[in-house]
From TrEMBL:
Keywords: Cobalamin biosynthesis, Oxidoreductase. Pathway: Cofactor biosynthesis; adenosylcobalamin biosynthesis. NCBIfam families: precor6x_red, PRK08057.1-2. One of its GO terms (biological process) is cobalamin biosynthetic process. Coiled coil: none annotated. The keyword Ubl conjugation does not apply. GO terms for molecular function: precorrin-6A reductase activity. It comes from the Bacteria. This is Cobalt-precorrin-6A reductase. The lineage of its organism: Bacteria, Pseudomonadati, Pseudomonadota, Gammaproteobacteria, Chromatiales. InterPro entries: Precorrin-6x_reduct (IPR003723).
Length: 259
């Protein structure tokens, strides 16, 4: 009888959890899709009704805070975590840092670079929405493009001397009671030509947005620069200190190094 070539006690396949739902999260799952030597699980928050599903395994919905995440990582025998959530989804990042520290697991933050002001820009950078509201009052803004996400409109609804053009991917539920607002449903990417036309046709004097970074929604900043439109830009929230990658290839290198 020939000997069995399989090892008697095979090592389990290393497993990585991607906290995803972002362009970077999908791109990483796609880059890892062909890796037979790795188990890849993507986690989506479950905020979207029919989310795009990444290749590999996936799960949907919150974990139940740090204890729930610790329990999940342990029972699913995960060996590493890559936090690829949106730059403004910081609660998940802090939970991931606490859970990985408790279990001694390696954690990488994969995050697209922030936008930086260019010569000619008129950026007013703020740390939160109350800061943006104060900046709007102080600036004398009259016609504002509000591109802050449909769930973050309420802080602006009391500004009744301003006409708001609210741009969102899907309808706010509910839409706060603005005195003077129009809803524009649109999904990026947006071209420079379209952004220029929108700002000009709507006679926008101020744009309010988050520093999400990335290409898909950056054209509004170039259009604002060209037309002299003021930008009230919310800075990114603080993240826990952890290794960082700004693109998928750096994340792949980190993963190969730590597993
Ligand atoms: N905030 C934004 O501007 C923005 C923009 C575009 C996309 N997103 C995406 O939308 C999701 C939610 O954003 P958020 O600002 O509400 O996040 P958050 O404030 O950081 O997270 C709130 C809670 O949602 C759950 N959660 C978040 N991301 C998750 C994931 N990938 N998998 C499983 N559970 C997740 C966690 O619940 P438990 O505590 O129960 O585990 C977390 O504590 C994120 O995945 C983010 O990437 C956010």
């Amino acid at each position: 009888m020939s000997p069995d070539p399989r090892p008697s006690n095979p090592q389990p396949t290393p497993a990585v959890l991607i906290l995803g739902g972002t362009t970077e999260g999908y791109a990483l799952a796609e880059a890892l899709a062909e890796r037979a030597d790795l188990r890849v699980v993507s986690s989506l928050a479950g905020r979207t009704d029919q989310p795009r599903l990444p290749p590999g395994e996936h799960r949907i919905g919150g974990f139940g805070g740090v204890p729930g995440l610790i329990d999940y990582l342990r029972t699913q025998r995960l060996d590493a975590v890559i936090d690829a959530t949106h730059p403004f989804a910081s609660a998940m990042g802090w939970n991931a840092a606490a859970a990985c520290e408790a279990l001694g697991l390696p954690l990488l933050r994969l995050e697209r670079p922030a936008w930086q002001p260019q010569p000619g820009d008129d950026w007013w950078q703020v740390d939160d929405w109350p800061g943006a509201v104060a900046a709007l009052r102080h600036s004398g803004a009259r016609r504002v493009l509000l591109a802050v996400g449909r769930q973050e409109l309420a802080p602006f609804a009391d500004l009744d001397a301003i006409h708001f053009l609210i741009r969102a991917v899907s309808p706010p539920r509910p839409l706060p009671a603005f005195q003077d607002a129009r809803l524009l449903l649109a999904r990026g990417p947006f071209s420079l030509g379209d952004e220029r036309a929108l700002l000009r046709d709507e006679r926008i004097d101020t744009l309010v947005c988050k520093n999400s970074g990335g290409e898909a929604t950056a054209a509004k900043l170039a259009a604002a620069r060209e037309l002299g439109v003021r930008v009230i830009m919310r800075r990114r929230p603080q993240r826990p200190p952890s290794p960082r990658a700004t693109d998928v290839s750096a994340a792949l290198a980190w993963l190969d190094n730590c597993l």
